[in-house]
Amino acid sequence: MKIQIINGPNLNLLGVREKSIYGNTDFETYLENLRGRHTDITIDYYQSNVEGEIINKLHEIGFNYDGIVLNAGAYTHTSIAIADAIAAINTPVVEVHISNVYKREEFRHSSMLAANCKGVIAGFGMNSYHLAVESLLMDQ
Questions:
Q1: Is 130 a known active-site residue?
Q2: Active site includes 59?
Q3: What stretches of 40-123 show up as alpha helix (H) in DSSP?
Q4: Count of alpha carbons within 13 Å of 116, Cβ hemisphere only?
Q5: How far is CA 114 from CA 70, 72, 73, 77, 109, in A?
Q6: CA-to-CA distance for 3 and 66, rounded, in angstroms?
Q7: Separation of alpha carbons 35 and 132, rounded Å
Q8: Which residues, in sequence order, are CB contacts of 4 under 8 Å at separation 6+?
Q9: Directed axis angle between helix 127-138 and helix 27-37, to 10°?
Q10: How far is it, in rounded angstroms, from Cα 26 to Cα 31?
């Protein structure tokens, strides 16, 4: 089984930015831990601050992976183009958020992507990624 994690804008700064919201752990450290919990599957990782690059990655892997875990960051609330890319591929996508977006600014309460995703997981810190992987494993 192959799962692709895609992180969007500013998530390259995890462990450094807004620690009260996103915690102290950088994503590479968390990813090592996640892979250690799931040694029987391949978990690939991609991060970009550029909307078009995220779309290109979805197109590239959206027909030959078993699942995608997508934290599109702020693009979640603005990108019809990413929503369309999700709709165009066959691989199921789980939308994730580290923070509970419903405890934050009003504009974060709305997702352009959710209707095209298998589900949404938010508010469990970095563990949101683990929960998303588990949800994809349930379908296998």
A1: no
A2: no
A3: 51-61, 80-88
A4: 20
A5: 11, 11, 13, 10, 11
A6: 6
A7: 13
A8: 43, 44, 45, 46, 57, 61, 65, 67, 68, 69, 91
A9: 30
A10: 9
Q: Which two tokens stand for residue 83?
A: 């929503």
The DSSP bridge partners found for residue 47 are 7
Quick check: 112 and 51 in contact, CB under 8 A? no
pTM of the complete model? 0.92
For 135, counting Cβ atoms within 10 Å of its Cβ (0-12 exposed, 13-18 middle, 19+ buried), the class is middle
Decide: 80 and 112 in contact? Cβ < 8 Å: yes
* pLDDT of the chain, 140 residues: tens digit per residue: 999 999 999 888 777 766 666 667 788 999 999 999 999 999 999 999 999 999 999 999 999 999 999 999 999 999 999 999 999 999 999 999 998 877 666 776 669 899 999 999 999 999 999 999 999 999 77
One of 30, 65, 97, 129 is an active-site residue; which one?
97
Long-range contacts of 126-129 (CB under 8 A, 24+ apart): 126/14, 126/23, 126/25, 126/27, 126/30, 126/98, 128/71, 128/96, 128/97, 128/98, 129/5, 129/30, 129/34, 129/69, 129/71, 129/96
